[in-house]
Structure formats: structure tokens, C-alpha cells
Amino acid sequence: MDTFKTAQDAEDVFYDALEESDLEKMMSAWSDEEDIICIQPMRNQVRGRTAISNSWKEIFAANAQLEIEIHHQHWIEMSDAAVHVLHAQLIFNGDRTHRLPPLITTNIFRRGEKGWRMVLHHASLPPPPPIPQAPGMKP
Amino acid sequence: MDTFKTAQDAEDVFYDALEESDLEKMMSAWSDEEDIICIQPMRNQVRGRTAISNSWKEIFAANAQLEIEIHHQHWIEMSDAAVHVLHAQLIFNGDRTHRLPPLITTNIFRRGEKGWRMVLHHASLPPPPPIPQAPGMKP
Q1: A35: nearest CA in chain B?
Q2: H/E stretch holding A61
Q3: Of A39, A99, B79, B88, most Cβ neighbours within 10 A?
């Protein structure tokens, strides 16, 4: 398994694996410990390496042609933990005109003996866009 | 300001403040540093003490009669960071019969010179319940 020198290295591998539907690469981004948790929109939370691996396997079975643009919003750095908050813009089948709302995501990484690895992924839907006012409508 | 000896102490104060619509108590649960972030369902993320305080002030202005049941799901403990994943069941006006879906929540706490304080709150809506099958319907 690779050793990631920074939390960002582990995060890059996580999103590369997601674009490539590569389960082995995906799981290499996560900690070897069992206290890991993955919370995806529209799915129940899953905990531990086996459950998280099975969950990604299900998602990757759809074989989506997916690109992901990452827009970092916020970092919190601690001695052996790093928190990245980002917006993940998913682009399916190269279609950049019909953009989905980006997923608001918290990723947490822990520094262990084997370098930095993900311990939590929490992605959720953003607030809906404001409702446009028709001309003449009262606000 | 109080000094919280554990992450749980800070989390208890956070949810007490939410039930009591007590802004001062709420902000005492958060770190004094500016690298803090609050992500609520249906609201844009807010960062830093002033923006987070203003956001809670808006929420508390509704003066909801609110109780919150916390169901911890998962803890990750690091040397100076703690991660709590929980389901927060909101109960409005004492109505326990019409239960909303619980908010899936990640809270992150950091240990500083003044004890443990919250640095991130990320609450999101759970997946919708499965659609019930009418008798005789094919699954």
C-alpha cells in the first residue's frame, strides 16, 4: 500500500479512484483501522473497511463515466488530523452544460504510522437555489 | 468562558444551547479560533466566529420550542481532535408523534489551551425512507 505524506495526497487518490471506479485504489485512501465512516447523500452511513468497500463496490458497479471538480472551501489542520471541506462538482458523461449542484463534503484524515489516510467522508446535498421571481410577482 | 475537559462536554453545551436558543452558550461551545465552519441543511456554509454567530442568531430568532434527542453513531479519537457522528432527532413543540427524519451530523472538536471546543458542525438530511409497496404491487 502507498504511504501518503500529506492529507491532500490521500484525498487526490480518493477522487482519482472515484473517477476511475477503482475499488483497490479507493480503499488505499482509507485508514486500515476499523473506526472509519462514510456518509453519502441518499445512502445509509457505513462503517468499517468491509462495509465501506462493499458500498463503493455497489456504486462503482454503475460504471458511471464521471469527472469530478474539487473546490476546496476550508481546511483545519491539527497535529495528527486534517479536515478538508470542499464542494465536489460531479460531471457525468462529459456533460458540462447540465450541472448538478455540487456536493458539500467534509473529509477527515488521520496521520498514522503509514502516513495520512481518510477516516471520514461526509457528503451532502447543498441548499436548493433561490426560487426566481416571475415579473410582476410580489416577493 | 468555560473550559471543557472533554469533547463530549462541549457537545452537550452545543445541544443545550440549541434547545435553549441561547446564543452566548452556543458560541462558548465553539473554538475561539477563526478556522471554524458550520454546515447546516438548507443553509449555505458559514465560516469564522462572526458569521457562525450571526447564523445561529437568525435561527434562534424563530424561537422554536425545540427538544433534541442525540443518538451517537460513531466516535474517532485522536490526540488533539475528536470526531462524533450522531443522529439528531429534533422534536418541535413537544410533538413526539410526527417525527422528522433525524439529521445525520458530524461534529469535530479540537483540544486547545482552553480545553475542547467545536471546530466543525456538518448536519445533513438522511436518505428518504423506502417507498412502501401497495398490496399486489410488483416490487
Answers
A1: B76
A2: helix A49-61
A3: A39
Give CA–CA dist B45/A24, Å, rounded.
Answer: 33
Residue A131 lies in a domain: no
**For residue range A32-43, what is the model confidence (pLDDT) as tens digits?**
999 999 999 988
Would the CB atoms of A108 and B76 count as touching at under 8 Å?
yes
Instruction: Tell me how close the Cα of A1 comes to any Cα of chain B, in angstroms.
Output: 23
Most confident residue range from A88-97, B6-15, B123-132: B6-15
State which residues form the domain around B64.
7-45+55-124
Cβ atoms within 10 Å of A22's Cβ, excluding its own: 15
Number of domains in chain B: 1
**Measured CA angle at B42 (ends B41, B44), to 5 deg:** 90
Q: Which residues of chain B lie closer than 8 angstroms to A80, CB-CB?
A: 78-81
| Interface ipTM | 0.89
Domain-located, residue A114? yes
User: To the nearest whole angstrom, how far is the Cα of A118 from the nearest Cα of chain B?
Assistant: 12
Three-class DSSP category at B37: strand
Residue B78 belongs to domain with CATH number: 3.10.450.50
Give domain status of residue B31, yes or no.
Answer: yes
- Comparing CA positions, the residue from A16, A15, A13 lying closest to residue A29 is A13
Find, in chain A, the residue whose alpha carbon is nearest to that of B85.
A37
Give pTM, 2 decimals.
Answer: 0.91
Å between B79 CA and nearest CA of chain A: 7
Contact A78 B110 (CB under 8 A): yes
Tell me if B38 is assigned to some domain. Answer: yes
